[in-house]
Each structure stands twice: as structure tokens, then as C-alpha cells.
Amino acid sequence: MFGKVNKEGYQAVIFTQQFRIAGTVHLLAEERVSDYLDDQDNLFIPVTGATVSNHQDGQVTKAPFLCLNKKDVTMLIPDLPPPMDDDLTPPAEMAAEGKI
Hints:
This protein has helices at 33-38, 91-96; strands at residues 7-15, 19-28, 44-54, 60-69, 75-78. By secondary structure, it is mainly beta. The longest helix is centred in the middle third of the chain and has 6 residues, at 33-38. The protein starts with 6 loop residues before the first strand and ends with a helix.
């Protein structure tokens, strides 16, 4: 049987050659985005609540879940974690804490 893996969701915008994807990226708790991208064992990035925009024709598609192949990523811009309450951490503090 598989145990539950504790993951945290982070809002992000991801660019590929053809698409712009905005949604929630799910990483292990305390894992930095850069470490996840560098890890050769993780081939895909799980994204929920995705809005996918095609660069070429402007068509927009929404997907409740998608797995994005990391080799297709040209840029990933992490944003603040989804708000849990009124306490939002600025990106500079997240970087200092090693979260991004």
C-alpha cells in the first residue's frame, strides 16, 4: 500500500515553446522549485487548475489536471503559495527561507 505524500501547492506560470500554463504546481513539502527541476528522477511537473494558452493562435484551454514534461519547460515563474489565510509571505522572504 502507498502512504500519503505531503505536498504543497504553489501558483506558477510555466512557459514552453508553444504554451503558457498558469496553475498550481505541486511539490513535496519543503522542496524548492529549483531542486525539483534539477532532480533527474522527476520527469513531469503535476499542475492542477491549469489554464493553457497557445502562443500561436491564442486559444485558451482549461484543465483540472495535467502533467507537463520538464524537458519542454523554457521558463517557470513561481508565485506566492495559495493563500491559507490573511498571512501572505513576500517572494523575497520565501527565497530567504529556501522555498523558491
